[in-house]
Aspartokinase
Amino acid sequence: MALIVQKYGGTSVGSPERIRNVARKVAKFRAEGHQVVVVVSAMSGETNRLIALTKEVAANPDPRELDVVVSTGEQVTIGLLCMALQDIGEKAKSYTGGQVRILTDSAHTKARILNIDEAPIRRDLDEGNVVVVAGFQGVDEHGNITTLGRGGSDTTGVALAAALKADECQIYTDVDGVYTTDPRIVPEARKLDTITFEEMLELASLGSKVLQIRSVEFAGKYKVKLRVLSSFEEGGAGTLITVEEDKHMEQPVISGIAFARDEAKLTVVGAPDRPGIAYQILGPIADANIDVDMIIQNIGHDGTTDFSFTVARGDLAKAQKVLDGVKAHIGAKAIESDSTMCKVSIVGVGMRSHPGVASLMFRTLAEEGINIQMISTSEIKISVAIEDKYLELAVRALHKAFGLEAAA
Ligand code: ADP
Ligand code: ASP
Ligand code: MG
């Protein structure tokens, strides 16, 4: 008998029939003698609908109240799934994040889990219940409802698995595992049997939404056995996220390609080229709570320099306003912005031992006529910022150039 935490995403619970399908899947694990904790997302489209609703009422909704509204999607699903389970003869009990007491910090819309009281869940399991927990939500020390950021149900699943010391955390979704890149963009993408935590962390942080990055961080930290599987196809082994590289296999140089749409670039033109200028530009941006991604400072001419960086497109207007103030303060010539950027990244631990990866990447993009506007690298990834109309072309060309579609 094992204790398994299963998380089902929005598409997997997207209709009454699909919820009944999840109930049948869970019942099968119960019949094999396992204890099962299920984490569910809101039905597909529901979280987007709720966010849109808040925007119709207020241009800038208060984050506390935003969380009150968007957390309701998951509450519907836990109740429905319990009913479906009970309907086929399973004992089942639902919990919101607050009822479990998934304690988080107070950073509304992007809260972090601090602690989980797992005792009531354990009791219910021992009494033969399937325990169904709402993903994506928690409660802070003052009793305020919080949410964990988009895709946060993955993190609820892994955090519960860690707290319960579960034997495995299974993330059921609408693809049958982690692929070399998003199979919706590249149909030739190949499913990976395993991927290292290190690589999965990079892919998630660079835009692959198959797992929320915090869920991968959690799993790595607490040694949770984490697997991504299809909720629609039976019998597949999915993708196991592993600590170790598979030493028996010839490691491919690149394991995967990630991309992030909706980036924007800002340039401070003609900033005075003197010590402290980066701080004077980026300090106020950080104070405004805007995350900066790639940064470039050009070589100075005549005592001035151009300074560019990228932010999420949703933060562009805010960042521009901040820079207008900075421009006057430091005496820069102009602020330029470009809202049509995206980022494409190649990731692989094999990069460490293979020189020439960057040059193949740049050559491939050059052959497609794609202009690289910014580059950033780490030990196991290379990212480029390019115009967003080239995103699909770049991903497909790189996927082919690095031989990712071929069997490993
Ligand atoms: P869920 O609602 O189940 O949480 P998500 O939509 O959040 O599902 O994540 C699954 C989606 O992630 C897939 O449908 C796929 O389009 C996308 N995706 C992006 N990159 C990858 C990748 N490398 N491997 C598999 N899926 C990926
Ligand atoms: N429902 C939330 C979202 O759409 C959380 C999740 O699905 O993981 O982001
Ligand atoms: Mg998701």
Q: What stands out?
A: The pocket of magnesium ion (ligand 3) is lined by residues 9, 151, 154, 209 (CB under 6 Å).
